[in-house]
Design brief:
The complex is a heterodimer. Chain A is α+β, with helices and mostly antiparallel strands. Chain A has helices at 3-14, 21-28, 32-49, 77-93, 99-103, 119-125, 149-158, 164-167, 198-213, 220-233, 236-239, 259-272, 278-292, 297-308, 316-346, 350-361, 367-378, 436-447, 451-454, and strands at 19-20, 55-64, 108-115, 126-138, 380-384, 387-401, 407-419. In chain A, the strands form two sheets. A four-stranded antiparallel sheet of chain A has the order 1-4-2-3. The longest helix of chain A is centred in the C-terminal third of the chain and has 31 residues, at 316-346. Chain B contains ten helices and 20 strands. Classes of the chains: A alpha+beta, B alpha/beta. Chain A: It is found in: Nucleus. Chain A: Keywords: DNA replication, Nucleus.
Chain lengths: 457, 494
């Protein structure tokens, strides 16, 4: 029974929030009538302990005194005016018998929401009160009752995934046995109509692999800074590979030979992804989030929403194909991880890259062009349903201090993921590499194009 | 202070609260005002056809009424004779004629003026009334042959608007005007029996599982929810929602709420949804040509969708569009598109699929008619009455509603001052069967009455106020057609 006290204490006192009886009933999965009593209990006890520590609003139901003019104002102040106007019109300019209102008296029931300080005044306006209950509790008095709307707005978003036909009984909502709902539920509009199906699937598998090793972190917030720290130690581009989303479609040089089979599998998956059982997704989507760091959360959400309307078919063939594809993918993933690890190890020492550069520089003078074309070629793009996702190899400029204290600017190949949001980079602009230390070594490159001199640094 | 009053003002009890079951609703909509879809909908026709067919269809009933009343009518030994054509009336002869009323009002908007005049200054704001105080208004009666001006002291007592079909008795005076002594309207058409259509369907073997007529609950009627993009003025809508779900208020109210078997939303659910911006909206908007995507605000429709989707698991809903809703502007307004309601869609019929059962969430036309719990219900979003209001003196909306029923016209002023689809083969706005309940939404205040027809027809008229302004929900008892009001309000001192 103290569960509700805890909940209310945390939300009202600590988080300074408004808690309505509906919010409480949803949070604790209790009947809304019981929630009203809980609010009352909490209100009594807390205010007994310390006067006016909790503020309440009440909902009063009953019939009002007929002679009492409605004193309610606020939102309806304007409307009161217009009502008055029409009333006077009625009495002055309408001689017609007011048939309806005249011969039969229409019962009017009033449901009024009031703050606790106004409660007595409101009660006096009523001829007959059928019920009073606490509508909400809040830490202090509220100026505008309208902020109570937030409670319901929150309920509609927070518990949107609950099936109302199943779960609402416990809240005391009136049940209707005749309700007709189409079995095939459409997704809410937030879900993008075309979702790259293959990519998230892999994300999940990757996530599963990793979470086996790592303790699952409960909150994304917690893992965020930590990841950043890890990233700092390595070069910036080493952080990129763990991004799970685009892994499927893109390969570093070393795994390039795998391109054709991989494409196949991803295609396979695209066609079968619809058959994926829901359970898996919901189970794995949670651990997936910590890993995605800077990958947009939206992807995970899209994935979940899409699950809602997937048709659950799994024939034997499909299952086999799936299993095979999965195996392939896992192996490739593993390989890729290894490769990337090597690459990461390579990245920091400046010499190795420099050597690489030198090797490449021994080629003819039109080097930048050839390199560009290579970069273009290397960009692997998955186009799924009109959406372009993938990774491409770009040259990144990197500045560092060498042993002599000079600033060295280097170009290094790096992988970056891109999506349709970004325009396709036609040519990675060859960046001028000029710094006093690198001049001797890289003079050739600098002389290649005079435009480099004017290039933006 | 009763015991039930304190039931929630006590510490949590262990006793279980009952789970309430909602009263079922028998629902059978008619497709009277559905327009043809797609390429079958044409706009090339002349509006004159509407008046022609209207007169052709209503002439007979008016003649019957008039003949009964005036057959042996004598003034100074002269018997009233029927004259077939307006232009065939001879001066000094006592006779009666049938035709369409046309109101010539200087203040009435005239499309020809709009075209011929060049407006260099901003037009004046729309008028509340077209009537001009100094008697410049003229009432005319026209048929296929021509027009004759009506006059006489009898006329100002009558409620007349452009488009209604009447029979007038009198003589032509020296000025060539028709001096009216008496006036007859078609009056209420025949009224079907309660459960009439239901029984015929049962006998037809369509609906075998329901032989008996179950005890009906109540229908909740609301109009003018007026949801807009602004936050912080929708708490009353929340209270309405909680009341209808049976979560708010005390056990008595919850039991009462469980007896509500259907919600009818009579227009203007969204306050600024119309595709044609109002004069005020245009003035407020800064000049920008073409469509401005930044001006679009999805919040109101989303909020309405969530609101209705929250109600739907518990309560079937019939949703009529209104003047400010994102539907077509000309009457009959067609159902709001299901794409506006991503959450509610699951409860509606699959578009384009014909089904025996109506949708749980029924987006209907405006005006709309159908059978609810056996009663024939005619409902409109309110534009029709608002437009009639402009033609006549006075404020009594119920009287206007009554007149419209007696004229047998849902939208008499269409197509003159009310936008309308150009019907060609028939005027769909003619009421062929008398409803039991006539609901008009978005009226300035709540009002109701029961009117009776010459053949014992009884019609419950309900003028539904705007919820946004009044916070009033109307409950109609579907057994005895009694009406009650539930008023939601916030108590806030200024």
């Amino acid at each position: 029974m103290d569960k509700f006290t805890d909940y209310l204490a945390v939300n009202v006192f600590n988080e300074q929030r408004v808690v309505s009886y509906r919010a409480l009933s949803r949070a604790l999965k209790v009947h809304s009538n019981l929630a009203k009593q809980m609010l009352y209990d909490f209100h009594q006890k807390q205010n007994a302990r310390k006067a006016s520590s909790v503020h309440a609003t009440y909902l009063i139901t009953g019939t009002r005194n007929p002679q009492q003019p409605a004193q309610t104002n606020g939102v309806h102040s304007q409307d009161e005016d217009s009502l008055m106007q029409s009333d006077t019109f009625m009495s002055s300019s309408a001689p017609e018998p007011d048939a309806g209102t005249g011969e039969e008296s229409i019962p009017v029931k009033s449901i009024i929401l009031a703050k606790e300080e106004d409660l007595e005044e409101v009660k006096n306006q009523f001829e007959n009160i059928t019920s009073i209950h606490i509508y909400s509790l809040e830490p202090g008095t509220i100026n505008d009752l309208q902020i109570l709307t937030d409670c319901n707005r929150e309920i509609s978003t927070k518990y949107a995934d609950e099936d109302p036909l199943q779960t609402w009984r416990q809240y005391g909502t009136i049940q209707n046995a005749n309700v007709k709902r189409r079995s095939m539920r459409r997704p809410p509009p937030a879900a993008a109509p075309i979702v790259p199906v293959a990519a998230p699937k892999d994300t999940i598998e990757a996530a599963e692999q990793r979470t086996a090793k790592r303790p699952p972190s409960p909150r994304m917030k917690d893992i965020g800074p930590k990841k950043k720290d890890e990233g700092k130690e390595k070069s910036p581009e080493t952080v990129a590979p763990p991004k799970p989303g685009p892994i499927v479609s893109s390969k570093p040089e070393t795994t390039r030979k795998f391109v054709p089979p991989k494409k196949e599998t991803s295609d396979l998956f695209k066609s079968f992804a619809k058959a994926k059982p829901k359970k898996q997704a919901s189970a794995s989507s949670a651990p997936q989030t910590p890993l995605t760091e800077d990958e947009p959360m939206a992807e995970a959400e899209e994935e979940e929403q899409e699950e809602d309307f997937r048709i659950k078919i799994s024939t034997k063939e499909e299952r086999e194909a799936k299993a095979k594809a999965k195996k392939d993918r896992e192996e490739q993933l593993r390989k890729m991880m290894e490769d990337e690890d090597e690459e990461m190890a390579d990245a920091p020492p400046a010499e190795t890259t420099a050597q690489e550069d030198e090797v490449e520089e021994s080629k003819p003078i039109d080097r930048p062009v050839s390199r560009d074309s290579a970069a273009d070629k290397e960009a692997t793009v998955t186009v799924s349903g009109g959406r372009r996702r993938g990774r491409r190899r770009v040259m990144k400029k990197k500045q560092m201090k060498d042993e002599d204290g000079y600033l060295v600017t280097k170009e290094e190949p790096a992988w970056e993921s891109f999506s349709e949001d970004e325009p396709e980079v036609k040519k990675a602009k060859p960046l001028a590499v000029n710094s006093s230390a690198a001049k001797g070594k890289k003079g050739k490159a600098g002389q290649g194009n005079i435009m480099n001199f004017f290039a933006k640094k | 202070m009763t015991n039930s009053l304190d039931v929630f003002l006590q510490s949590p009890t262990t006793n279980d609260f009952p789970n309430l079951e909602r009263t079922p609703s028998s629902y059978n909509p008619l497709q009277t005002y559905d327009l043809a879809k797609g390429n079958d909908k044409h706009y090339q026709q002349q509006y004159a056809d509407m008046y022609f067919t209207r007169l052709a269809m209503l002439k007979k009933p008016v003649e019957q009424v008039a003949a009964e009343a005036w057959d042996d009518f004598k003034i100074a030994g002269e018997t009233a004779k029927k004259v077939d054509r307006v232009l065939a009336v001879r001066q000094g002869q006592l006779c009666w004629i049938v035709g369409t009323v046309y109101m010539e009002m200087p203040l009435k908007p005239n499309v020809l003026d709009d075209i011929s005049k060049e407006h260099w200054i901003a037009a004046p704001p729309p008028r509340a009334k077209f009537t001009s105080p100094n008697g410049q208004d003229q009432i005319m009666l026209e048929d296929e042959s021509g027009r004759i001006r009506l006059t006489g002291s009898f006329l100002p007592m009558q409620l007349l608007v452009t488009g209604c079909i009447v029979a007038v008795l009198g003589t032509e005076n020296r000025d060539g005007e028709f001096d009216v002594v008496d006036l007859k309207v078609p009056d209420l058409p025949a009224q079907p029996e309660r459960w009439g259509r239901h029984h015929s369907q049962v006998q037809g073997g369509k609906n075998n599982q329901q032989n008996g007529t179950p005890q009906a609950g109540k229908m909740a009627i609301v109009s003018g929810l007026g949801i807009n993009g602004d936050e912080g003025d929708t708490l009353c809508v929340d209270l309405l929602l909680e009341y209808l779900l049976g979560e708010a208020a005390g056990p008595e109210s919850q039991v009462a709420a469980a007896n509500i078997s259907r919600l009818l939303v009579a227009g203007n659910s969204i306050s600024h949804g119309t595709p044609i911006p109002s004069r005020e909206d245009v003035a407020a908007k800064k000049k920008k040509y073409g469509y401005d995507p930044t001006a679009y605000n999805a919040a109101p429709t989303e909020r309405l969708d969530v609101l209705l989707a929250t109600l739907l698991p518990s309560l079937p809903i019939t949703l009529l569009p209104g003047l400010t809703d994102p539907a077509n502007v000309s009457l009959p307004q067609q159902p709001l598109h299901p794409a506006l309601f991503p959450h509610c869609r699951a409860y509606s019929l699959i578009p384009g699929e014909s089904s025996q059962d109506p949708g749980w969430f029924d987006t209907a036309t405006n005006p709309w008619q159908g059978d609810v719990d056996g009663w024939r219900v005619l409902a409109s979003g309110g534009q029709t009455v608002d437009d009639v209001f402009k033609y006549v003196e006075g404020e009594d909306r119920i009287e206007m509603m009554e007149s419209m029923l007696r004229w047998r016209l849902v939208a008499p002023t269409a197509p003159d001052t009310l936008w309308s689809y150009p019907f060609q083969l028939k005027d769909a706005f003619i009421i062929s069967e008398c409803p039991h309940v006539y609901i008009v939404g978005n009226q300035p205040k709540f009002d109701t009455a029961v009117i009776e027809g010459p053949d014992g027809q009884r019609v419950r008229l309900i003028a539904v106020p705007k919820f946004r302004d009044t916070g009033e929900l109307i409950l109609l008892d579907m057994e005895n057609l009694g009406v009650e009001v539930v008023k939601f309000d916030l108590f806030q001192k200024t």
